[in-house]
Amino acid sequence: MKITVVGAGNVGATCADVLAYREIANEVVLVDIKEGVAEGKALDIWQKAPINLYDTRTVGSTNDYSKTAGSDVVVITSGLPRKPGMTRDDLIETNAGIVKSVTDNVVKHSPEAIIIVVSNPLDVMTYQAHLSSKLPRTKVMGMAGILDTARYRAFLAEALNVSPKDIQAVLMGGHGDTMVPLPRYTTVGGIPVTELIEKDKLDAIIERTKTGGGELVKLMGTSAWYAPGSAAAQMAEAIVKDQRRVFPVCVKLEGEYGIDNCYLGVPVILGKNGIEKIIELDLNDEEKALLNTSRDHVKEVMDVLDKLNSK
Ligand SMILES: NC(=O)C1=CN([C@@H]2O[C@H](COP(=O)(O)OP(=O)(O)OC[C@H]3O[C@@H](n4cnc5c(N)ncnc54)[C@H](O)[C@@H]3O)[C@@H](O)[C@H]2O)C=CC1
Ligand SMILES: O=C([O-])CC(=O)C(=O)O
């Protein structure tokens, strides 16, 4: 199995490292436009193999996509991260151009690859990759839900003083402040979370989750990478190992949840064909209203992208 990661910055290099040390693929190719950066980081990860004991070969490339040929999965992390005071949507113009040219190159050399987009604004960059690649919706998806649920689960584990391993949760919607955490589908060792925590505390955790990316941007002056890189690697693993894992993933909805032609995070089964199935939950009126608000926001930004592409 061969996985390419485009963008050897904070998220891309972390993702490549996780893919390598967990031996998720035989070969990981790291690509960046900046001369030498991908080669250097790939070499550094390869030199860690004798210490951390793994066989995955890591190869770097400065914009030479011939090295990526025949990839099974391609993770796109290239693009600007936001700085304090910016929203993810502020990145649209620069990152759309980057995602477009990267996707064109990826598809030329790996027409069978499944594409996982990480660049922001996530839902709309996934739409851009879909437009450029012309691949079916099962093969172009975005990573956000695993990260957003991980933040929610980590905050809950801290508040309840339990292992994060035992917290299961679903979160839907766009990757932004309109995301929709679902307490009704959150359990701790199988126990509904609402039986273990007061409503005001849970509400505060939900609010912190929604702005979880921004919290880190404020602290570091740039956005997060350890959890995002690991989350993208987990999606790639589910695909190359055909694990049929159930994750929230950004995918094009075509009527599911009563929503058409919109990229949003929903629970799916992830396996060797990419999106094997979209799981449709029976949402209550309040949850549906929150999801529709999120849809409206993502649709607005998709319209901005359409205008940029028609210039
Ligand atoms: N979906 C999500 O949940 C998350 C998304 N992100 C997004 O991921 C993206 C990357 O973030 P970081 O790694 O922190 O940024 P970074 O600045 O550390 O790395 C980005 C890399 O992309 C490279 N690049 C730019 N144009 C390129 C091109 N045309 N071809 C190849 N490489 C190119 C840059 O040279 C740089 O090395 C950002 O857009 C950020 O907002 C970050 C965290 C979570
Ligand atoms: O906040 C950002 O800009 C990066 C991101 O998407 C996240 O960490 O959730």
TrEMBL record:
Keyword Transmembrane helix attributed: no
EC number annotated for this UniProt entry: 1.1.1.37
All residue ranges annotated as the Lactate/malate dehydrogenase N-terminal domain in the record: 1-142
InterPro entries attached to this UniProt entry: L-lactate/malate_DH (IPR001557), Lactate/malate_DH_C (IPR022383), Lactate/malate_DH_N (IPR001236), Lactate_DH/Glyco_Ohase_4_C (IPR015955), Malate_DH_type3 (IPR011275), NAD(P)-bd_dom_sf (IPR036291)
Alphabetized GO MF terms: L-malate dehydrogenase (NAD+) activity
Binding site for NAD(+): 7-12, 32, 95, 118-120
Chain residues that bind substrate: 82, 88, 120, 151
Keyword set, alphabetical order: NAD, Oxidoreductase, Tricarboxylic acid cycle
Residue span, Lactate/malate dehydrogenase C-terminal domain: 147-303
Catalytic activity: (S)-malate + NAD(+) = oxaloacetate + NADH + H(+)
Gene3D superfamilies the UniProt entry points to: Lactate dehydrogenase/glycoside hydrolase, family 4, C-terminal, NAD(P)-binding Rossmann-like Domain
Active-site residues from the entry: 175 (proton acceptor)
KW NAD (keyword) present: yes
Function: Catalyzes the reversible oxidation of malate to oxaloacetate.
Family (UniProt): Belongs to the LDH/MDH superfamily. MDH type 3 family.
Name of the protein in question: Malate dehydrogenase
Species of the source: Fulvivirga kasyanovii
Organismal lineage: Bacteria, Pseudomonadati, Bacteroidota, Cytophagia, Cytophagales
Gene this protein is translated from: mdh
